Amino acid sequence: MKALTFDFWGTLMVEGPNYAAQVLPERYEILLAASDEAGVPAGEAEVRDAWSQATRKFNDAWRAGVFMSLEDRVAYAFKLLGVRYDPGLVARTAEALAETGRDAELIVRPGVHEALPELARHYKLALVSDTGVSGGAMLRHYLDREGLLPYFSAFSFSDETRVFKPDPRAFLTALEPLGVQPGEALHTGDHPRADIAGALRTGYAHAVLFGSEHTGEPGPQPTARIHDHRELLELVKTLEPA
């Protein structure tokens, strides 16, 4: 085994209890300002409803494995608000939304700070993550804020690859710069369809399910289930050939 890849949301970090209260008001203000700029002023309740519907559409697309960008989500919200499509306004609004949450509260999952430095001594580490409003640039910022960024040598974020897991391209984008074949890698993530099925479909040797939130979902069985990343330190030893 030469490389370990990780999912981000739910696996390495999760939103803190105050995350929504920290980011949503700013996002609503951005959308309100954009509708004003377009000459179609909207009320806060209208903006909240439009953004909620756009987010549901994004979640449906994600579950179906159909890529939907943040610009697509903004354009859909604008359509609901009666804002005429303007690619420049859509792009500026998406860019502003992507910057929200820079200082928001995230919680690092158990064992991350202890396990990653040790794992990085023996394996190449990479990140394979789907993104929503916070794109790859913001996720890199979150990793850097926690002192974790230097442990990773490659990244695959859906806003940059324009594919969602379980598409094998999401995983191969992270492995190719490392010079590692899927059969030489282990992936850890919290979602059976996106992470476990995706990694195994790509040809990974091993796929580890983190946590228990999604354990009832159908799909291929993971190599192992863990609840603390320190468990990986012993697990990888058992998976190496004698």
From TrEMBL:
Q: Which GO terms describe its biological process?
A: riboflavin biosynthetic process
Q: Origin, by domain of life?
A: Bacteria
Q: Which GO terms describe its molecular function?
A: hydrolase activity
Tell me which UniProt keywords the record has, alphabetically. Answer: Hydrolase, Magnesium
Cofactors named for this entry: Mg(2+)
What name does UniProt use for this protein?
Answer: HAD family hydrolase
* Organism field: Oceanithermus profundus
What's the source species' lineage?
Bacteria, Thermotogati, Deinococcota, Deinococci, Thermales
